[in-house]
Amino acid sequence: MYPAKQTCSICGNLLHDEQLVGNGHLVTWTVVHQGPPGFSAPYVLAWATLDNLGIGVLGRLNAPPGEWLQHIHVGQPVSIWEERNSTGPVHIWMEVTHD
Amino acid sequence: MTDAYVAGVGMVPFGRYEGVNEADLVLPAVQVALDDAGVEASDVQAVFFGNALGPPGLGQRTFWASSLVGKPMINIENACASAATALVEAVAWIKAGMADIALVVGVEILTGRVEGLIPMPSDDHYAAQGLTLPALYALKARYHMEIYGSTPEHFAQVSVKNRRHAVYHDMARFRQEVSLAEVLSSRPIAEPLTLLQCCLNADGAAAAIVVSECVARGNRRAVRIAASTIGSGLRRQDIGWEEQTLKRVARLAYEHAGIGPEDISIAEVHDAFTPGELLAYERLGFSKEGMGGIDLEHGRFCLGGKPPVVNPSGGLLARGHPPGATGLAQIHEVVLQLRGEAGPRQVDGARVGLTATMGGNVSQLETNACVVHILTR
Fold it and tell me: CA-to-CA distance for B307 and B327, rounded, in angstroms?
């Protein structure tokens, strides 16, 4: 289940934790100019499918917005990974890789 | 089972009110609705009170000094669809014979409490990635652009149209036209969306009196509620960016009303951000899949054009958006239009009207709530 849940909503069983890491493909994206508190805008926010888990995830691209955005497209390959700290939420990052 | 009718509507202009509480906005709107329906507060048998972000027990807090005291009073929170959901509940009570006269209210005091973006809950996984409500709509827009070839101009044109409509609406917050160039060159919020494609946070209240067939009999200004349908959003994970919820709920509404999209004269839809309206053209069946922007570019959905006219009131973009009140402001416009009382923005021969209200920021889902009403003469 994404986002992560500790128990299954249907059977109540405990779920195990999966790392969100691997290759994926972009579905949609936007350059956010006005973000929530604590975010330094502009940044590129994107939804991509993660191939190994077959799920869609939301995360930030790890490059500042620029001319390169003109050349990306639906299905653009990306690598995806997560950043976990002992406190605070999981952050998901993406990087454009080559076709 | 009896049909339900809207016998009266009332609202206060939406905007920024300093130093007021919810009751200060609700009571005048309710009085207008009661007068419009020709009933007294003491005739009301149940109250359905929509609000999104205010304190609990708001219906009782508002009406404790009125003759509504002691009546069934039900507070309803369903994000931006709170007032529309309150209407769904009132219609159900009327149809079930539990009341013959119901009061429906929607209210929000937003300014002074929330400035700028409406915040997401702090433990929301998506908010932690930097998602905002305009960014969510921007992601929908970009998907549509990539798949169907719509352009930033198509989305911006929604604002141009709605602001043009609002010139003729005395209750609208913004009554000046804006050009396509002005919309596109306003401050970027989440690309392709610019500031003038985002509705304004507002305070406001709206009310409606809903009655049974026997009360409505002989009242030529009563408007029949032909469908009152509600759903919640499907999981984003399951549906991707196809945005199916409105389509699903609208299909049910058309089925209940026994009509189709081609019968709709006017529609008030949820243009909190411009992609909301453009996608609604397609989900409501006014446009073919992917053709919403092209149809708008060709002059459809505008006052003076062929039906359906979409957001003749100017929509949320021009009216301002008090989340807990918006759904009833949409009903207000449709009722005036169907009665032929919409003045300079009257759509000739309007016979069937639709409202579509979306609400929510539970971002695992496409939307918290989606409500569609169809009203007929």
Answer: 22
